[in-house]
Structures are given as structure tokens and as C-alpha cells.
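To fix ideas, we close by showing one paired sequence and structure record:
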Amino acid sequence: MSRSACCLIWLFLSGWGLWCESACAQEESTGQEAPEEASKLATAREKRDAAIAWLGRGQAGEAERGLREAVRLLEEAGNPVEAADVFEHIARSRVAQSDGQGALAARVERVDRLLPLSTDDATRSLAWARFLLGLNHLQLGQLEPAAALLREASAGFEASWGAESKEALTGVNALANVLWHQGHWEEAAQLLERLYRGRDVLWGKQWIRHLEVTGNLANTYRKLGRWAEAAEKFDQAYALYREHPELSSPESLAGLRINHGRCLRSLGRFESAMRSFERALDDLDDMAEGRERDVLRSHVWNDLGECARYDDRFEVALEAHERALRLRLALKPRDLLLIGHSENNLANTLGALDRNEESLRRFERALELYEQAGLKGDPRFGLAQANLATLLMKIGRYD
């Protein structure tokens, strides 16, 4: 999945590994066992801990053999919850051996072993097991099973630790990520709002996390067309940058300004939008040279052109779209779709200036590029055709 600074949400679970380990540690039996049972349990835990140490030293194969032996000993000692939890470490040993499917199978095994158990320890462990299995599916790009498991995990976290706990908010964070990538903007927004309210609980003074959730919520509002709320959140993100300048980078600032400018443009605040785009260009001047920077610069010039065209400043729009096209023509390798968009936008602008023959040629070129890019049948192709038809009617060419 793409992680563009301009529009995508990120998964920030910086503390989950530690929380998971502490949760597992809390599940270790604290009751009074018979001497023989206590000895078996102590031996099993020693075996498990030694295997985990091997895993930490990069001895994954040896670690897995020890972990599987620990599972057997823990079962014999009458501790099925701890035995099940060992499968998370087995999953990590599989990852260390480049066996993604093996890791997935181990996490499924953990869930399956915990499902029949009804103790409080088992319930808490099951929530973490579902959470980690959900993340595993997410890493594999399997969004549907990831969402289902993370919903169950979040419900388990809330039931065991409370709706405003760090554990519950960890589940909210992961589930919001999946829903965002599935395009379920409304539900993602609700979860992000909850995460935003709980950001101090989850992240304390990790200001980069505060900035990320603020930007993610702003972009989600933008996806929903809730422009005023999005603009407000972008303003809050700017405030965080001003308070903590160490968080900023040319890419992140430019992405923020681009998306903020698009919100302002949608609100009809064209002057403010253009200032935001111009500042984004300044930010990009500080970015390392290369294709990524040139693509972003072309997007910003395109945004400036559209903003000026909506504000009936057609000469300004024409210059901006020409700049965007020059940047896109110079990209290696070429992106036919981006070039087609620039040709289409130039055609619209030239038509607004009554430079109809030039506009006609640009529309024809845009359609040709769209077809080469495999966009025929796409709504954007149809829109370009409709714009061309409107121009032909305007100049009296009905053939």
C-alpha cells in the first residue's frame, strides 16, 4: 500500500509490542500450585524464556524447537493460556525465517487454542491474539480478514481494559487504518475522532503521533467533503509544526499545504488556497532532487492552475498548467495519465480564453493519451469527451 505524504493514512502502533508482552506476562498464573505442578510450570517457563532469548540472538530455528517444547510443557503443567501465547513467539521465529505463511498459521493456532477458554486471562490474551493476527493480514494486504479480526480485538480490549484505555485506543488506531484503506471514510472518521480525543492517553508527549492523527483526521474529512472541518484540522497541524519545528520535513510540510490548499479551494477561498500551494512549492525546493519531487511539483502547479481557473483568472491558470505539463513531459519514465490530465486542463483553460482551435487540439491529445493509458471507459475519459463535444458545439462543428 502506498504511503504518500499527501493523502494516505499510516499505522502507528509504536508501543503495541511492549504492551502485548506485558499483557502476556500478566496472564502467568499467580495462584498457589502444588509443588510438583509449580516445578513443571517453572521448567516450562524457563524453556520458553530461553527459546525467546535464542530468537533475540538470531537463532530462529533453534528458538522454534525450544518454543514448541515449551508449548508441550506448559500444557502438561496445566496452563493452556500461556501455552497458546507461545505461538506468537513461534510466529516471530517464522518471520525471522522468511516464512510469512508459517507466521500466519502460528497466529491462527494461537487464536484457535484460546477460543474455547473462558477465563479472564484467556479473554485478554485472545484480544491480543486477534489483534496480532489482524495486523498479519494487513501486512499481507488482506483487508477484509484484517478488519474483522481488528473489530473483535477492539471489542475485547474495551471489555477487558475499558473504552478509553491505551489498549482499546491501540485497537482503534489499527482498525481506522484498515477502514481508511477500504474507503469506509465515515466509520474511519468516527474512529479517528475517538483516537484524536485519546491521543494523550495513547501517545503522551510523542508529538509526531499527535501530528499524524491530526493530519489523518483532516484528510479523512477532506475525503468526505467536510471541507471546513478538514481546514480546521489542517490549521491545528500547522500549529503543531510551529510548536515543534523538529517534526517538519519538506515532504511533510508540502503534503500538508497541498491538501490544505485543496480544502480551501473547495470552500471557494481561492486566494488562501493559492498561497498554500505557493508555500508548498517553496517547501519542495528544499526537497532532494528527483522524480518524486518533480511529480509533486507538477501536482502543485496543476492545483494552482485549477484554482486560478475556478477564480476566472484564466491567464494565470494557463501559465500554471503549462508549467505542470513541462514537468510531466520531462519525467522518466513518462506517465501518460498525468500528461493526459495536463492536456485536458490546458484544453479547458484555452476554451475559457476562446482560443478554440488550440483547445480542440489539446482535447484530442488528452483523449489519445487517456486511451494509450488504458483509461477508455473511465469516467475521466467520458468527461474529456463531453468537454470536447461542448467545445465543438460552441464553435459550430456538429459533424
Summary: The CA atoms of residues 380 and 386 lie 10 Å apart. Residues 1-31 have pLDDT under 50 and may be disordered. The chain is about 75% helix and 0% strand.
